[in-house]
Amino acid sequence: MNNGMIECSVCHSKLVSPNTKAVSRAYDRYRSKISSKQRALNVFLVVGDCILVGLQPILVFMSKVDGSFKFSPISVNFLTEIAKVLFAVVMLLLQARSQKVGEKPLLSISTFVQAARNNVLLAIPAFLYAINNYLKFIMQLYFNPATVKMLSNLKVLVIAILLKIIMKRRFSIIQWEALALLLIGISINQLRSLPEGTTALGLPVASGAYLYTLIFVTVPSLASVYNEYALKSQYETSIYLQNLFLYGYGAIFNFLGILVTALVKGPSSFDILQGHSKATMLLIFNNAAQGILSSFFFKYADTILKKYSSTVATIFTGIASAALFGHTLTINFILGISVVFISMHQFFSPLSKVKDEPQNGMLDFKDNHRSRDSSFINMAAGANEEASHRVESDERRPLLPT
Predict the structure, then answer these.
(1) Integer CA distances (angstroms), 316 to 43, 153, 170, 255, 322, in order
(2) How far apart are CA 390 and CA 386, in angstroms?
(3) Region for residue 26 given its phi and psi (left: phi exceeds 0; alpha: psi -120 to 50; beta: otherwise)
(4) Is the pLDDT of residue 354 over 80?
(5) Residue 203 is inside which H or E element, if any?
(6) Cα end-to-end span (Å), the chain
(7) Which of 40, 191, 197, 344 has the most CB atoms within 10 Å of its CB?
């Protein structure tokens, strides 16, 4: 990117760099004409996310010994990021081998350096995710797995607000009402969720739990929005190359956390494998797979869809938690889930879609009639009002290497 211009990787034409509003509008148009291939991808992402996200709090709970963790949560997060980095490297090598003659080398130094500069924004969500991944363990000390999963669903409203502010995403009144229903469903489930008679950090458990919950909701919400914008704004960059930067930043931030812990608690805490078990190894694998799947959500689907799919995982978490640990499925939980399903149906209903704004004398897009026909693959490059460039369907790169 030079002087606000970007170059298409297919035809090398110069295009105006899009702003957040242009990216959001392009996504709105893309979502309204989703293909059968994209629907199949969305189904795969949702099903996979439900399984992985549903298992995550259960594996964290299984990792506890006598109500506490014998290992450093930061070490789990660090090993998770290393696993994701290795996955990104392997997939990059496979994708590079499948490149056609004449295409720009994926693993060349110039490509890597340029992509690193264009995707430097990924350092922000990586830092926020490092904080959030640590908070996941802290939350397990206050709530049971099903409750942790339901609390995390509060992020969807915060994400919707951030999407509107940062990316200028538009939501209809029906969709805002659906988000309100989601909060009602979560609130029903949260009745009598706090344990009694315990303290944390010298604070009453209610105060400590609510404080952690506030951070637990806002930090990852901000990370998700920045992650979606960073991935979509550099849409032509390979997702595995972007993941390499994101996970690399995450590994660095978690390693710094390990160093700080070693300075505070002594050199013995620098042993990142101390206190680990089979449960923690499964947790690391699950977290890595969940993070990889999330990147496909943010780049090829939608952050809101990601959070709603995580909400569906609450059912799996609740049932598995009851079967494995004897936690009771209360009537509040059942009623809350029912309201959540109504919210999901209402949010994604065709009747809730945002209609195009009427055009007046000052047009937002000078060639709006042409941009409506643009492909989402050219979202980041052609969403701006000055862009008339198009990429044909047969020029699209596959989502996975073949």
Answers:
(1) 17, 14, 31, 33, 10
(2) 12
(3) alpha
(4) no
(5) strand 203-204
(6) 29
(7) 344
Q: Which residue has the tokens 């009771």?
A: 328
Please list, in sequence order, all residues whose beta carbon lies within 8 angstroms of the beta carbon of residue 92, skipping any fewer than 6 positions away. Answer: 106, 107, 238, 240, 241, 244
Contacts of 120 (CB under 8 A, 6+ apart): none
Residue with tokens 């930067």: 245
Computed over every residue of the chain, the mean pLDDT equals: 74
Closest CA to 59 of 310, 314, 307, 317: 317
Residues forming a β-bridge with 16? 5
Contact 286, 62 (CB under 8 A): no
Strands 199-200 and 203-204: antiparallel
331-352: average pLDDT: 85
**Token pair of 279 as six digits:** 């449960």
- Distance, CA of 289 to CA of 83 (rounded, Å): 9
Is 207:194 a contact under the CB 8 Å cutoff? no
Mean pLDDT of 277-292: 89
**pLDDT of 367 above 50:** no
Beta bridge partners of 15: 6
Neighbour tally for 181: CB within 10 Å: 19
Query: Mean per-residue pLDDT for 9-24?
Result: 53
Provide the pLDDT for residue 13: 52
Look at the pTM and tell me if it is higher than 0.85: no
Proportion of the chain above pLDDT 70, given as a percent: 70
User: What span, in angstroms and rounded, lies between the C-alpha atoms of 302 and 324?
Assistant: 33
Helices (H) and strands (E) in the chain, counts: 15, 4
Tell me: the pLDDT tens digits for 145-173?
Answer: 556 666 666 787 888 999 988 888 889 99
**CB atoms inside a 10 Å sphere around CB 394:** 5
